[in-house]
Amino acid sequence: MKIEELGEFGLIKHLTSTVKLQNHSTQKGVGDDCAVLHYPQEKDVLVTTDLLLEGVHFDLTYVPLKHLGYKSAMVNFSDVYAMGGMPRQITVSLGISQRFSVEDMEEFYNGLQLACEAHGVDIVGGDTTSSMTGLTISITCIGDVEKGKAVCRDGAKQGDLICVTGNLGAAYMGLQLLEREKAVYYQQLQEHHGNETLEMAQPDFAGKEYLLERQLKPEARRDIILKLQEKGIQPTSMMDISDGLSSELMHICEQSNCGCRIYEEHIPLDYETASQAEEFNMNVTTCALNGGEDYELLFTVALTDKEKIEKLEDVRMIGYITKAEDGKVLITRDGSVFDLKAQGWNPLKNES
Amino acid sequence: MKIEELGEFGLIKHLTSTVKLQNHSTQKGVGDDCAVLHYPQEKDVLVTTDLLLEGVHFDLTYVPLKHLGYKSAMVNFSDVYAMGGMPRQITVSLGISQRFSVEDMEEFYNGLQLACEAHGVDIVGGDTTSSMTGLTISITCIGDVEKGKAVCRDGAKQGDLICVTGNLGAAYMGLQLLEREKAVYYQQLQEHHGNETLEMAQPDFAGKEYLLERQLKPEARRDIILKLQEKGIQPTSMMDISDGLSSELMHICEQSNCGCRIYEEHIPLDYETASQAEEFNMNVTTCALNGGEDYELLFTVALTDKEKIEKLEDVRMIGYITKAEDGKVLITRDGSVFDLKAQGWNPLKNES
Fold first, then answer.
1. Structurally, what CATH architecture does the domain formed by B3-146 represent?
2. Chain B residues in contact with A31 (beta carbon < 8 A)
3. DSSP structure string for A260-271
4. Which residue out of A9, A26, A34, A54 would a mutagenesis test of the B interface target, given it has the greatest number of B Cβ atoms within 10 Å?
5. Which residues of B touch A46 (CB under 8 A)?
6. What is the CATH number of domain B161-174+210-339?
7. Which residue of A has its CA nearest to B152?
8. Hey, of A52, A72, A140, A257, which one would you mutate to test binding to chain B, going by the most B CBs within 10 A of its CB?
9. Can you give the pTM of this predicted structure?
10. Rounded distance, CA A108 to CA A214, Å?
11. pLDDT tier for residue B350 given thresholds of 50, 70 and 90
């Protein structure tokens, strides 16, 4: 069905008709000039927003719309978890070009709702409009945290332990795999003189499912925030790893006015990531440091929390915070000392 | 200066360096994974969002970037006022293509900040990225209202008076003027064989300043909300007029399950709007009903508030709410009865 048959209000009504509100803090959702929320006195309110543009942030030649919806929501939840909070509401604005159908947008919304249901988040509003070019997605997420307990980037202190959840570099490897298959596809298309109906070799992703899932369907670490609360651990600083470990760690150091010392041997890697890096002839540590899009958490805790942290599953200590003048360094497996560089993904920076 | 010289983080830092926080509810602004807000128990929190795309919502051939920044903020404030609330914070996401410089974005931000200062709003966050095509602007506004006092669209009751602030149709006339001059410019350019350096006839907007300002620099009606509060008037329903009076009134009637009867002779028009409509050979009432972008307020009040309303400057009663089965009608000057039609601006709807 063509979107113009429904129009803007019709499309919004259609897509949000199955939205159920789950949160006490949501008083009124979609359908008025504003959503109405109520947060109790003992909570602070968190707000984060992300703009995702086709051709810059995602490539629909290999990203299914349902996955895109899921990931678009997840990257926003991740920012709320990175403050030690819980996401509660999102607004979703979409700019949609003519090549998308109502069914396409249903797919996108299915992914969005799947993510929202899994994380207890309400879709409370948004804006839908036509776009002259590709798909534009703007999501704002609102969450809450105990008053005064938001974990910022500027609280790391000398001697604090640096911790990372899960493993790093897998999402980047997944992206490399998808990009390689895309190149193969276009090469075949060229050989077939642009005839898409001819049979092509299908991509063989057997055994690579984990890497693809890390790229296409990341999971924000709600579980870690709940565990930290349960164990009474208040991180001194925290961020989510969206642009790469190196870049995020440098943000924490700069905003906390300190240095850091991390150890290559402690950076958590999955076996598949390492083996894929080898196949691609890439340095796996570089992938883990600069890859980005893992949506794991990077945080620091006081040394007194060391024992509690050691008992936490899926959290690794990778180094510690130093004085600013000691620099931001990586100690390699052979004991060499390297300055960390932020080579994180930065679409506005000139790479030359 | 090229934006790529600063990069994403550099650009955000540069643009937000002069932002001063004005609101008690803003605990932490730009610079972390989330902004941190705190709202007291006696307030409800309002959230609204707007996505503005170049070529769909604005045309940079005649809209200066500073005005665009101002208007982008204002249309969001207007949604908060339309709930009877006060805007407090915004997040600003920008997708910027290569043809924009740092100075361009400074212009945009200047307009944004001017609007924010005038309405007491803090810029607390956002996202800045490159765009493959034009300029993308996504703004989310957060505001507050006394708990339980948000004015929704579904509260209009039979017998309520229908009120409109300011005057209608002027923004639409301003747009027609700008579009006409754009056409003249391109015609001249064609005659000059694309040589932009040749002298061209300058547009003559003398005497049309009011219409242009209504289009380029709309003012959200904070003053009216403050007056309503001061006089103890709680509207039964309210919206801002962004898509045209007809369309908005139909939303209120549908959501409140009622009808309406409005009178052509009471629809507030400015003299310049009427005279420009005549020059363009357009029906001024049609412009007022369907023009949109006036950002005036449309609201209903109980009949018992009639005397209070009559004393309010810049508010006009244009009709009253009826039973749903009586339809949504306009009574013309000669006493004819017409069904209202929503011909509001709807970029997703097929116009045929």
1. 2-Layer Sandwich (3.30)
2. 153, 255
3. EEEEGGGS---H
4. A34
5. 34-37
6. 3.90.650.10
7. A32
8. A140
9. 0.93
10. 18
11. very low
Min CA distance, A256 vs chain B (Å)? 12
Question: Residues B314, B303: contact at Cβ < 8 Å?
Answer: no
Domain ranges of chain A: 3-146, 161-174+210-339
CA-based nearest residue to B91, from A209, A298, A47: A47
3-state helix, strand, coil in chain A (%, to 5): 35, 25, 40
The residue in chain B having the minimum alpha-carbon distance to the alpha carbon of residue A133 is B133
Q: Looking at this protein, which amino acid is placed at residue B30?
A: V
Per-residue pLDDT, averaged over B252-279, amounts to 97
- Opening angle at CA B22, ends B20 and B23, nearest 5: 140
Determine whether the interchain pair A8/B82 forms a contact, defined as Cβ–Cβ distance below 8 Å.
Answer: no
List, for residues B108-151, the tens digit of each pLDDT value: 999 999 999 999 999 999 889 999 889 999 999 999 999 999 99
Nearest alpha-carbon partner for A244 in A273, A207, A201, A287: A287
ipTM summary value: 0.91
Q: Give B-chain residues touching A136 at CB under 8 angstroms.
A: 51, 53, 95, 136, 138
Mutation target among B2, B4, B6, B32 for the A interface, most CBs of A within 10 A: B32
Helix (H, G, I), strand (E, B) or coil at A144: strand
Burial A176-194 (b: 16+ CB within 10 A, else e): bbbeebeeebeeeeeeeee
